Amino acid sequence: MNKLLLSLSLVFLSLVFSGCSKQEGSAEQLGKKIDESIDSSKKAIDETIEKAAQKIEEITDTSEGSAEQAGEKIDETVEDLKHSTSDAYEDAKEEINEASEALKEKSGATSGGY
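The line above is the sequence of Lipoprotein; the predicted structure tokens follow.
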């Protein structure tokens, strides 16, 4: 009886430890892809903002018009940036939601009712 109990305990422990392997599952891989997508979106937005700031400086430096016109151009550029960043974040949000739904479907299909 003790040998049987010891054998079952060893089998159970080996299953538990094999389940804790360092191999990444599909959810973790998907999460990393989402993180990379968000990071690249942030970088693109930052680059766009930097370019816009440089353009604004060029406009204000070379502008011979009134300060009012330069201010209006700056306001327009800022509004355009707000819209483009908002669109980028919405796209990232949609990708995350789609990935989440796909993961839920996959986990439901692979769980087999467990």
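Note on the example: Helices lie at 2-19, 26-62, 67-111. The chain is about 90% helix and 0% strand.
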